[in-house]
Structure formats: C-alpha cells, structure tokens
Amino acid sequence: xxxxxxxxxxxxxxxxxxxxxxxxxxxxxxxxxxxxxxxxxxxxxxxxxxxxxxxxxxxxxxxxxxxxxxxxxxxxxxxxxxxxxxxxxxxxxxxxxxxxxxxxxxxxxxxxxxxxxxxxxxxxxxxxxxxxxxxxxxxxxxxxxxxxxxxxxxxxxxxxxxxxxxxxxxxxxxxxxxxxxxxxxxxxxxxxxxxxxxxxxxxxxxxxxxxxxxxxxxxxxxxxxxxxxxxxxxxxxxxxxxxxxxxxxxxxxxxxxxxxxxxxxxxxxxxxxxxxxxxxxxxxxxxxxxxxxxxxxxxxxxxxxxxxxxxxxxxxxxxxxxx
Length: 323
Ligand SMILES: Nc1ncnc2c1ncn2[C@@H]1O[C@H](COP(=O)(O)OP(=O)(O)OP(=O)(O)O)[C@@H](O)[C@H]1O
Fold this sequence. Notes:
Blueprint (H helix, E strand, L loop, with lengths): L5 E10 L2 E11 L4 E5 L6 H8 L7 E6 L6 H4 L2 E4 L11 H11 L4 H14 L15 H13 L5 E5 L7 H17 L2 E6 L2 H7 L2 E6 L2 E6 L1 H6 L4 E6 L5 H5 L5 E4 L7 E6 L6 H10 L4 E7 L3 H9 L1 H4 L15
Parallel strand pairs: 3-7, 3-8, 5-6, 6-7
Antiparallel strand pairs: 1-2, 1-4, 8-9, 10-12, 10-13, 11-12
The chain binds adenosine-5'-triphosphate (ATP).
C-alpha cells in the first residue's frame, strides 16, 4: 500500500442527485508540486475537502500518508481552505503563532517562526497590526503563513493565488518554491494556468467531476502537439471552415485586436500547411504565428471553450473572498 502524502482511489461524491466528483483517482507522491486545475464547479474543492476527511466520499478511498485522514496524519498537513477566515481582533503575529501552536509547535518556536515568515514576506512592519486593519491581500498572506508555519510535510492550498495582486502572487510563488525546497509536498488548485506552468511538476485536471488529465507539463502539451496561432478579423468561424478539411481548430483566450484561433498540426504537417488552408478558406487573416502549445490551450481543448472562458488571468485575479 502506498504511503504517498495523498492518494485517491475511485472516489465519488454526490450531492443529492448531482455527482460533484466522479470516480476520481490520482496520487500525490512525496516531493512533488502538483497543480489541481479545472473550471468553476469542476469538483476541486470537494476533492480537497474529502482528502482531509472534512467530508467522506460516497464511494472510493482516500489515504493520507497511507492511512485514513485522521488527527495523527493531519498534523503533517497544512491546509488553506477556499473560504478564508481569521480572527479579526488578533494581530498578524499572534494569528500565525496560534495556528502553529494548534499543530503542536512550542510557544517559543511558533513565535520565532511567525516573525521569520512575516519578515520574509514583507509583512514585518505589520507584525502587531490587527487582522481587521490589514488589507484583504495582506490578511490572505497571513492566512497562508498560518497554514505553513508548523513546517508541514504536505501543503494543500485551495486557490491560494485568488485575491492577491501580481506582486503578492509572486511572493506566494517564491514561498511555495521555498516550502518545496525545504522538502514539502504541495498540491494547489488554481484557475491561473501560468502559476501552474511555472511551479508544477505535474498537473491533474478536472472537468465536471472527472479527471481529464494527469501528467507532467510535457504530457499536457503533448495532448495538443504543435500548432499555429492565427488572428482573424472578428466574425469568421475558422473551426467551421477548416474542420471538414481535417484540421483541429479552437478559439483561444487571447485578448487583443481580432479573434485568435489555434490550429493543431498533425504529425507531418507544418505551419505553412495550416496557413495555406486558412488562406484557401478565405479567412480574413491579420496575424499568424507558429508555436508550441501552452497550458491554457490544453485547458480549453480538454475542458471546453464555454467553461474555460471563466479562466482568470494572473494580472486579472481579483479578490472575491472575504478575509
Ligand atoms: N455542500 C454542497 N452541497 C451541494 N452541492 C455542492 C456542495 N459542495 C459543492 N457542491 C457542488 O459541487 C460542484 C463542485 O463544487 P466544488 O466547489 O468542488 O468545485 P470547484 O472545482 O472547487 O469550483 P470553484 O473553482 O468554483 O471553487 C459544484 O456544482 C457545487 O455547486
């Protein structure tokens, strides 16, 4: 039996007649950073809650460090829930110290660790500021620091980047890398593909409760292969024009003048074959660029355009949660 930090085997969760997580299996091996991706409502948070034993699965099995999720192995985990919440009257330092103490650290070590974390993440000057007086992003950072203060072996972070401005997103990326370098295994959910692209050893992608991808970034890119990006004047349906000719074509999420499309290239095809077909179809081309796939394109192709449209961009990640 595996004693990996986390393994889910054929896990299913239903709410009434609705199946939120459907026959999901994956493993988080020690030492990896894994991105848990999927559009809104895909079942990510439900899966993470089951992983911690917050709610039981209707079918299948969850193992944390090779055992059922219970107090002994939960002490080795740091969990950042999607719903944020801290004691508003406590100051930043006491908050982190409090959570570290709950996970078994001594008062002295917890306080020293709180100071060290606040200092390295730019919050040193706000050590004694009450949570209620901090900005939303700062309070979220305090919550993240509270999650990892006890140096857990395994960090589970549900949408940790959501609500942080680009500077603080970078601080969090650095923090995740530092935790990983210290030896922690990390599983985090996100809507922002670029974070996953920069940080992850592996990606697990969900759509409508089912796993649609489980592999390295290279495996993810290989699902699309090479492609060409084509920008057209708005209003031309390139998928309808090229589909019958055997090309796989998707709208991309790129913003900008015109409408961007991606044409996947089959083995043996070159970008010029795509360009020739596009021109023969009479498409109003305003831009053309041969390129390799990106995780955003993989996401769109596996999850579907409509659901992928809800993706956040890193700069556009907006605070939704209350802290
Ligand atoms: N306690 C619950 N009772 C009923 N339905 C629920 C409950 N929790 C989740 N759901 C439903 O299950 C589905 C999956 O929700 P979940 O929160 O796991 O998705 P998610 O992938 O985390 O989405 P998001 O990125 O929007 O947080 C959604 O349709 C949600 O409405």
